[in-house]
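Risk register update: the risk of archive-format incompatibility is retired. Evidence:
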Amino acid sequence: MVFGEIIEPSTRALVIEDEHLENIPLYIGPIYQWEGQAQVPDDLETLIVVESKRAIYIASFLIKEKQPVCSIRNEGVSIYKVDKNYIVLFLNQTKSLILGEIAEILSPWLKKAKSIQAITTEPISSLKPTEMYKDMVTITKYLTNYETVPLNFGSKLDIPNLVQGLGASILSYCIHHNIKAVLWIVYTDHMPPDSENTSELIKYFYMLHFDFVVDFKNSSSDNNLYM
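Archived output:
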């Protein structure tokens, strides 16, 4: 099975008529190359997948000057070690892989991690019902297959809201393979990062016991959000 551009929560399925099946090319699997030490380490405890410019901006203060343990060449995926946590940064700049293939490539890490979390951001203007959140700067929602979420953080994302991206693909992969995972979606305004609109992101990483300080002096431009 290949996990493609998956949207969570699932609300519909794509049905392909039989006469079109013969036109689907044979899938040969993802073509990619690891750089660095891609073997899953024995000390892996928590795997945190971070995507979106704003979430990566905050995560950059955890990683600081660290070099990645490994990365997938030309696909915008790098893995960093911070204490016993491993942080997957996804820059959303793939060359040939689709998101579901990246989830498959990361499967050895997903199967070995004791805890799997993903975090992303979305515009708060897209959160429904719009009237309820129109005066908020930031708020956190989540999707999970845990019976009880691992952190006292946020509230469940309800339909008709949808989220897509690597985090959603990884959550779907984990659900399919009966692996516990949680996807945090931090909704925030469109203004440059500051202490107010990133407060939920900062709170999340503090709850995971990371020790870091955020510097907002150079946060006015989106160009510096990707390291």
